[in-house]
Amino acid sequence: VMTALSVLVGWAVPNL
């Protein structure tokens, strides 16, 4: 679960 969140955060932050 934490890995999935880390992937989502890693994708979302640069797209902000």
Automatic annotation (TrEMBL):
Domain of life: Eukaryota
Protein name: Uncharacterized protein
Native source species: Nymphaea colorata
